[in-house]
Design brief:
This protein has 237 residues and is mainly α. α4 crosses α6 and α4 packs parallel to α8. The protein is globular, with a radius of gyration of 19 Å.
Length: 237
């Protein structure tokens, strides 16, 4: 069944191309699961809904296919790929390696002003949990990790993480139905270790945080079986 196309939610930035804006919006809908795994997409319908020509949509489809989120069958259909546990685990491994180094640096680099920003983000995350606002918590979760990278002087690490974490994000979104508070508790422990200027404790807390998905993915898969590819969950490192 063809998935209804959602109305666009972006305003084209002055310096962004239409193709980049279409790509960003479709990627957001894919990672937030507004576009469900297994659903079919129509290039023409998306172009019409977003008020653009078909070329930027075609370009966005190609980029998303290269990232593994769409399967394009010429003259047949474009389908949102099912969630691959293997892709999720690879994304987690890349993210863990980069962020572990980041928190080691952040433990000596962050200032009281930086901690004020992180504490404010923790408060906002707590409010999002209380309001059961999963999309907001997900955005604040990303912002928390990005701020640590940037304030440690490693913003380019976040660029690499963002390029590779998409497959993990779809599972993370599903995990928020039951694990938002656990994620928040992890963030609190990470900040506490950073404030103590303890790189090993910060790294341990970060690794534990990103490893939670190893214990969650089979539960998530069992609850959303139709959205997952038919493959065993590989063991994590």
């Amino acid at each position: 069944m063809t998935k209804p196309i959602l109305a666009p939610r972006f305003e084209l930035p002055l310096r962004a191309s239409i193709a980049d804006s279409v790509f960003a919006e479709l990627q957001r809908q894919l990672l937030s699961l507004e576009l469900e795994p297994g659903s079919k997409l129509s290039e023409a319908e998306i172009a019409r809904a977003m008020g653009v020509s078909r070329q930027p949509v075609r370009d966005a489809f190609y980029r998303l296919a290269k990232l593994g989120f769409l399967q394009i069958l010429p003259q047949r259909a474009t389908t949102v790929t099912l969630i691959s546990t293997g892709a999720v685990m690879r994304a987690r491994a890349i993210r863990t390696a980069l962020e572990a180094e980041t928190v080691r640096v952040a433990a000596s680099a962050l200032t009281p002003a930086d901690f004020d920003v992180l504490d404010a983000l923790l408060a906002d995350q707590d409010a999002a949990i209380a309001a059961a606002d999963r999309p907001r918590f997900h955005r604040l979760d990303d912002l928390f990790h990005r701020e640590i990278c940037e304030r440690a002087g490693l913003g380019h690490f976040w660029d690499l993480i963002a390029e590779n974490k998409g497959h993990m994000d779809r599972v993370r979104m599903l995990s928020l139905a039951f694990a938002s508070r656990n994620a928040w508790d992890d963030h609190v422990r990470i900040v506490a270790a950073l404030k103590a200027h303890d790189p090993e404790a910060a790294c341990t807390a970060l690794r534990a945080h990103l490893s939670r998905i190893l214990g969650q993915i089979e539960r998530i898969r069992a609850d959303n079986l139709a959205w997952f590819a038919d493959e065993p969950a590989p063991p994590g490192p």
